[in-house]
Amino acid sequence: MGNKISPKELLDLAMEVGILKRVIRTGWQKKGVADPESVAEHTFRTAILAMILAPQYSLDQSKVLKMALVHDLGEAAIGDVIWEQGKVVIGSKEEKHKDERQAINDMFADNPHFQEYVELWEEFEKQETAEAKFVKQLDKLEMVIQAFEYKKEGSNKESLQEFWDNAEKYLSNQELGRYFEELKKLKK
Questions:
Q1: Is the dihedral of CA 117, 76, 47, 89 positive or negative?
Q2: Which domains, and CATH codes, for the chain?
Q3: Which pLDDT belongs to residue 73?
Q4: What pLDDT digit, counting tens, does each position of 15-57 carry?
Q5: Residue 1: its pLDDT value, please?
Q6: Long-range contacts (CB closer than 8 Å, 24 or more residues apart) made by 31-37
Q7: d(Cα 83, Cα 164) in Å, to the nearest integer?
């Protein structure tokens, strides 16, 4: 493998990605969850779900796993933009994607080997491939699992309903819908 990543490039990238450990998922915070998860925590579980489920759906496990890992990376630079009822509360959807795209490009600009990650992020954003649609479903499944856990910990059930409604749009009648249906049974 030519053009290996230099120690400085690796450390810079690791520190930039590490910011996600401190970026709180603002949707949970806005709904009054006492100790909301970080973007890194969300990404970690989404990646574990990707690793386990991709082969069961005859998808490229490596590609799905990488896409799950990069899908929210831009938030290290722009933060977790608040979404409400499918709309961006601060700024516009186009601004968020533009800012996130710039952040991803900046993060991976220095090394040609990283172009793959930029392309995977773009593929996820476009939602045109089976893998991208699958990772979007995983993203929503992870979110609703987290909502379920927060409810079990005592968060207000009604304040979290918006997350269930959002997941329903992406998971009903989809590959991962059966996991969502099981979670709804557990919720009752």
A1: negative
A2: 7-187 (1.10.3210.10)
A3: 95
A4: 999 999 999 999 999 999 999 999 999 999 999 999 999 999 9
A5: 45
A6: 31/155, 31/156, 31/159, 31/160, 31/162, 32/155, 32/156, 32/159, 33/150, 33/155, 34/153, 34/155, 37/146
A7: 14
